[in-house]
Design goal:
Number of helices of chain C: 15
Structural class of chain A: alpha/beta
Oligomer: heterotrimer
Structural class of chain C: alpha+beta
Distance between the termini of chain C: 35 Å
Helix content of chain C: 40-55%
Chains: A alpha/beta, B alpha+beta, C alpha+beta
Number of strands of chain A: 10
Largest sheet of chain A: 6 strands, mixed
Largest sheet of chain C: 6 strands, mixed, barrel
Number of strands of chain C: 12
Largest interface: B-C, 74 and 71 residues
Strand order of the largest sheet of chain C: 2-3-8-5-7-6
Number of helices of chain A: 7
Order of helices and strands of chain A: EEEHEEHEHHHEHEHEE
Strand order of the largest sheet of chain A: 6-7-8-3-9-10
């Protein structure tokens, strides 16, 4: 089954006098349960692609399908709902709501989904333990390190069992040891829950570890490597 | 140094426009308050001037010479002896004509079918016209003239109540200064319409000379009314009058504020309640400024830390914050004063009517339609106060900078 | 429900993120609301006292006169119906406060002074309930009954006339044929009133005594009726109207004293204007605070939107935050108002400007009057208009593009 399908995606930004093609007739298929890394130099279009998949940015043309459903034609409300129900996000920074504790941040999405308190509590406890934050449940983001904050974000992204987790440069602000730990966490979660992961990064440590590496340049895919073979 | 100042000023001005919405909202609070203050003060001062003028014009005048105690009791025997001579002397010494002697008695005035208790005033017709508006307010017939005998001018409502008109006769019954029975028959020659119901309903004026005979006054009267060029010039004239009074007799000169204590106190009462309201407005604006400036300082903690690390003294930064506030304050004052003045000008041309004003106005001798006047005081008082309080409110945020530590500040998120 | 709870939680926690700002805003709202209620209570207290005093000076909330009496209030214009008949009708109608009186202009003279006054022939038993004169504050005695041939005058008038209890004064008035009617009366009592003008204007004697002096037989000039609610005299008016003949005039107190009648309306208007002015002065700060709050949190708002929170929830969150701010501010303001008004319940002495207050028709003591409808008005205006004013920053926050908001750097 295809988790993500992009067909002939185009997106152009205007920056000063210049038109920048962030996506240039880009097509890609990602199967359910895959762990994919999008890599590109800065401005290569990986974030734009990720945002298009996540329904955060509308492409100029082309189609985006998530789990067999076309989403680029949906309205704002439907997109919000899609993100809420089916997609988990991990951003580069400012991932957490500052006034909520680690546990509350993890439960935030479930709360919006309307999941009962007991179930939320159970799931958030389990996941925080899994990401190695047992005992830190009641800390506010300001009281945690960058790596801990990203782990909370990861826990939140996967806790409600989304079909797809999108992560944009999740390791950019982390030291290498913490970054490796985070990638291991992604890999474990991918193995355990069979959740599809799409990670945009230019961090070589990440690129080296993933099964499928898609390299982009100027809005196009230049290389699509199955790293399991090698 | 000068160059340094202008850099700070330019920096302050630019800083304001980093958050234009916030700057405009803070300015807006000032403009709103200033418009209100300018307009309300113009309206109030205009109303007070009208109240004073309209209340003093008919009878009271700017000051009166009376026997001690007459102002409180108005008793017949609290007299000024040889009052005409004294009035003549005052006219000479002061060099003004607006000095008129009067005597007053309470009588029962009877026409063919009606009788009313009224107050009758003996006046010197040729001088009365210089101190009182009543001669000019005669709407039917004429005012008294020097040499008139048995002639009387009465209020229009009184004439209606007594069912008399011009040419009809009126009997006055009362008691003279010595307690004797006083009675006379007078002919109505004029009706005045002052618009002040109390006067129009129960007041009459007759020649001073005849009053002397009818009420056995023997040269005495009750008050000498003296008008200055305007109300503001009254106090100076009053001390000259006081100096001119014969020391031996028990006389005093009394200002309008004592003659009509209600007038001054009504103004004071109104002023103090408006003072309360204005204070609240100004305080609310000050809070708004305090909030804005405190936030703007807290927001820029890191930035301030950097410039302090570069060697700028905290005092300079404090001055920067004060200067920013001063800019906002000046904008608020200028825009507010201008809009307030425009608003006032509009109403000063077109007049302002408030529902219920007609009845309210009648109580305070002001017309139903008011034309507020912009004065320097009403234009500046409000905006200047708001400006000062805004600066005052910014002192705390500015002082906070003194305790700022560059390294900690730079670390602040 | 769950979603609402998280909105409340987020709003509540965000409110206290910047304590200083929130406290300043709460103080501002508190002071504003306090000023609204305090000033309103003073004003309403003053007006209430003025109207009550004014009605006491009439007295009677509804009065019946001969149509010519209002223009020409003399003995010639009495009610056509005999007093005994009026007594019978009004007595049977079940009013608890009513009286018939003879009211004429007169001149009162002592050995030394004369003054024009309003002479009232009354039935003291009936007038007691109307509150014309506070019987407890009469020095000497008040009239015994309608046949009493003594006279009661005001303290201030007695001072002017240099007369006193036990002394004789002469009353001069006219009978319907315009013959001078005069006779001597013995002063038996001096009454006090809050307004000096009342003490100087009114003079009382027995109704029957005056009727025979003026030779008017069994006739009176007016009927006065008072109910319990001066703000709503129409029912009383209707009831009185049905009792009297077509050709006589029935007047409400608002018509008899238009100054006070309009005062009531003007002051109600003033209260509304005052409340709105204060609110507007507050609203700038309120909107500013919310604008700042939203501005600081752009990234979080972007995050919440990206995670799938609906824009309407963002709007709701800011509105709830504003609501908390308003409600706490209102609470502080109301408490301050009650706390500051309670100790003043005994009255505020403003006798420094007593004559000025008298010119406005007010007594030299102010009794603040905290009316529940004024308090509700102030609270409702602040809450409703405050929420309306918050819509703009909240709306702005809800319309952020999640990606742009997330990317915002400071």
């Amino acid at each position: 089954m295809t988790a993500v399908r992009c067909v002939e995606l185009c997106k152009t930004y205007r920056q000063g006098e210049q038109d920048i093609k962030a996506l240039d007739h880009l097509s890609v298929d990602i199967a359910a349960g895959e762990f994919v890394c999008l890599s590109a130099p800065s401005g290569g279009g990986k974030t734009t692609l990720l945002n298009a998949i996540g329904g955060l940015e509308e492409p100029d043309s082309g189609e985006v399908w998530i789990a067999g459903k076309r989403i680029d034609t949906l309205g704002k409300g439907a997109l919000a709902n899609l993100r809420l129900q089916q997609i988990g996000f991990v951003f580069q920074a400012y991932n957490l709501i500052p006034v909520l504790s680690a546990r509350e941040n993890v439960e935030f999405v479930m709360q919006l989904q309307g999941i009962a308190a007991a179930e939320r509590h159970e799931k958030s406890t389990a996941l925080l333990q899994q990401v190695g934050l047992a005992g830190l449940e009641d800390r506010r983001p300001a009281q945690m390190s960058g790596g801990q904050q990203q782990r909370v974000a990861v826990a939140r992204a996967v806790v409600s069992g989304p079909a797809l987790v999108l992560a944009d440069e999740p390791t950019a602000n982390l030291d290498s040891k913490t970054a490796e730990g985070l990638i291991d966490l992604f890999t474990d979660l991918n193995n355990i829950y069979a959740t599809t992961f799409v990670i945009a990064t230019h961090d070589p440590r990440v690129m080296a570890q993933v099964p499928r590496l898609i390299k982009m340049l100027d809005g196009r895919i230049v290389d699509d490597i199955d790293q399991r073979a090698s | 140094m000068l160059a340094g100042q202008s850099v700070i000023a330019r920096l302050a001005w630019r800083n304001l426009w980093r958050q234009p919405r916030r700057t405009w909202l803070t300015t807006g609070a000032m403009v709103f308050s200033n418009i209100l203050l300018v307009f309300m003060m113009s309206l109030q001062f205009g109303m007070y001037a009208l109240m004073i003028d309209n209340s003093l014009k008919p009878l009271t005048g700017h000051m009166q010479v009376q026997a001690r105690g007459y102002v409180d009791d108005q008793k017949m025997r609290q007299t000024v002896p040889d009052i005409q001579q004294l009035a003549n002397k005052l006219r000479r010494q002061l060099g003004i004509d607006s000095v008129a002697a009067r005597a007053q008695a309470y009588v029962l005035a009877s026409s063919e079918d009606r009788s009313y208790g009224i107050s009758v005033l003996g006046v010197q017709p040729d001088f009365e016209i210089r101190v009182s508006s009543i001669p000019g307010l005669v709407s039917e017939g004429r005012f008294l003239e020097p040499g008139d005998v048995d002639k009387i001018v009465i209020g229009k409502l009184l004439a209606r109540n007594l069912k008399v008109g011009i040419g009809d006769s009126l009997t006055l019954l009362g008691s003279g200064l010595d307690g004797s029975f006083a009675a006379t028959v007078m002919q109505v020659v004029g009706l005045f319409d002052s618009g002040i119901a109390e006067l129009d309903r129960s007041f009459a004026e007759m020649p001073f000379k005849q009053f002397q005979e009818v009420f056995s006054m023997r040269g005495a009267g009750h008050e000498i009314v003296i008008n200055a060029a305007n109300v503001d010039a009254a106090p100076a004239l009053r001390s000259r009058v006081a100096a001119a009074l014969p020391a031996a007799e028990d006389l005093q000169v009394i200002g309008w504020d004592r003659l009509q204590p209600g007038l001054k106190q009504a103004i004071q009462a109104d002023l103090s309640s408006s003072f309360f309201m204005y204070t609240v407005l100004v305080i609310l604006v000050a809070f708004s400024v305090l909030n804005t400036q405190l936030m703007s300082v807290l927001e820029r903690t890191r930035e301030f830390g950097i410039v302090m690390a570069l060697g700028l003294r905290p005092g300079r930064l404090g001055r920067l914050v004060m200067l920013e506030t001063a800019f906002i304050g000046l904008m608020g004052a200028a825009i507010g004063a201008a809009c307030g003045a425009l608003c006032t000008l509009y109403f000063s041309v077109n007049g302002l009517t408030i529902p219920g004003m007609a009845e309210m106005g009648a109580q305070f001798n002001i017309p139903a339609q008011i034309h507020p006047q912009v004065s320097l005081l009403s234009l500046c008082a409000g905006p200047c106060t708001v400006f000062l309080f805004s600066l005052l409110a910014a002192v705390y945020p500015a002082l906070r900078l003194r305790w700022l530590h560059p390294v900690e500040a730079m670390r602040a998120a | 429900m769950l979603r609402l709870r998280i909105l409340f939680m987020l709003a509540w926690r965000n409110l206290w993120r910047n304590k200083r700002r929130t406290l300043i805003m709460l103080a501002a709202i508190g002071i504003g609301v306090w000023a609204m209620i305090f000033m309103t209570a003073l004003t309403q207290g003053m007006v209430d006292k003025m109207v009550r005093d004014g009605i006491t000076a009439l007295p009677g909330e509804v009065q019946v006169h001969n149509p010519d009496y209002l223009d020409d209030p003399t003995v010639a214009n009495l009610l056509p119906t005999a007093d005994s008949e009026l007594q019978r009708r009004f007595g049977a109608a079940g009013f608890n406060q009513w009286a018939t009186r003879l009211r004429v202009p007169a001149v009162i003279s002592s050995e030394r002074e004369s003054r024009g006054v309003t002479l009232l022939g009354i039935d003291p038993a009936r007038e007691r309930q109307l509150g014309f004169v506070d019987y407890a504050r009469v020095q000497g005695r008040f009239l015994y009954n309608a046949e009493d041939d003594a006279i009661v005058i005001g303290r201030a008038l007695a001072a002017t006339l240099e007369t006193g209890i036990g002394k004789r004064v002469v009353i001069m008035s006219q009978d319907p044929q315009n013959n001078i009617a005069d006779r001597g009366f013995r002063v038996v009592g001096l009454f006090r009133a809050d307004l000096e003008s009342l003490e100087k204007t009114f003079v009382f004697t027995g109704k029957k005594t005056l009727q025979s002096l003026l030779k008017v037989g069994n006739h009176v000039s007016e009927i006065a009726v008072t109910g319990n609610e001066y703000r709503n005299v129409d029912p009383l008016y209707d009831k009185v109207r049905r009792l009297v003949d077509e050709q006589v005039v029935v007047s409400r107190w608002t018509e008899l004293n238009p100054y006070l009648g309009s005062m009531l309306k003007v002051m109600d208007g003033f209260v509304l204007v005052w409340v709105i002015v204060i609110f507007l002065a507050l609203s700038f700060g309120l909107v500013n605070t919310l604008v700042m709050a939203v501005f600081e949190r752009v990234r979080e708002i972007g995050l919440m939107l990206a995670l799938g929170m609906k824009p309407s929830n963002i709007l709701g969150q800011i509105m709830i935050e504003s609501m908390f701010l308003l409600i706490f501010g209102l609470l502080i303001g109301n408490l301050l108002a009650v706390a500051s008004i309670a100790p003043l319940r005994g009255g505020i002495d403003v006798s420094v400007v007593a004559k000025g207050m008298a010119m406005m028709g007010s007594a030299p003591v102010l009794y603040p009057l905290l009316r529940i409808q004024d308090v509700l008005l102030a609270n409702a205006v602040v809450l409703i208009l405050g929420l309306l004013a918050s819509l703009s920053p909240a709306w702005r926050a809800a319309r952020y593009e999640p990606i742009k908001a997330l990317r915002k750097v400071d």
